[in-house]
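Archive entry: two folds, one per protein. Generate the first.
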Amino acid sequence: MNFIKAFTSTSLILLFSSFAVAQVSVTFKLSPAGNFIGTTSDVKGAVKVQGTKISAENIVVNLKTLKTGIELRDKHTQDKLETAKFPEAVLISATGENGKGTGKVKIRGIEKPISGTYVIKGDKVEATFPLKLSDYKVEGTKYMGVGVKDELTVVAILPVQK
């Protein structure tokens, strides 16, 4: 069953990435098992590529447009992220070389360092990195042991700046 979920999730990300100019997908892992994906194409910004090095600044993601496929879950996600008060996540800056990178992200007014991996795919860069909800003071995601785990996986597909 987990193979089917992983295959479906990966297939959706690849399908969306082939059509969208920019997209961010967040995999929310569930406790005790499973996951769901939130996706938005309301992403502004691009990545600079110079040889084996990349850099990006002020990539803005509209969290209010993050969709999971279920309206009630979308509402709960919006409520927990407090998108009425903090509508955007911002990649303040990032640099990378040879497929590995670091940067700084601002979510809910809190800036934290990140690190992850990336792949250059033609005119797009696909970056993957983990985030912890607790780093951004997102609380109340579990009830009696059931809910969203603390660590998320973010996949950002961004255009290369021309």
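Generate the second and append.
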Amino acid sequence: MDTPRIGDVAERSKDVTERDIVLFTEITGDRNPLHHDRELAAASRFGGIVVQGGVTSGLLNALVAEQLPGPGSVFLEVRWRFLAPVRPGDRITARAEVTGVRTDKPVTTLATRVSDQEGRTVLDGTAVVWRDPVLTELAGTAGGTTTEGIHP
């Protein structure tokens, strides 16, 4: 697999559903009424149900792990600002652009952003990513990623 270069860009989109809220709650235990109680959420400054920030930022996890830099990548540092709510029914698009590449180790700096179907930025920030060289090579020779060995 290729080493990322400054200026490389990747995008990934997702239609957000109420099921995403339920699944994220099952994983994390986040039962904030803003995500689950229509009446209380309607009375909030958001005016209705919003998805957890982890659902929004999770799309960046997938983008980094699957596309840029790709398999074997993990976040070392993130700095994200959540600028607008995401609601069930929204289509969000994560975007990452390489802004820095270390020459002494497999570390890449990314400008990151998630926007909604109206082009409004809902998350903005940066991430520093390390990519495991052994997994990078194996993923390149195996022709992709696998979930073999991961069991629910």
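Annotation attached to the second fold: The chain has a mean pLDDT of 91. The chain has five helices and five strands.
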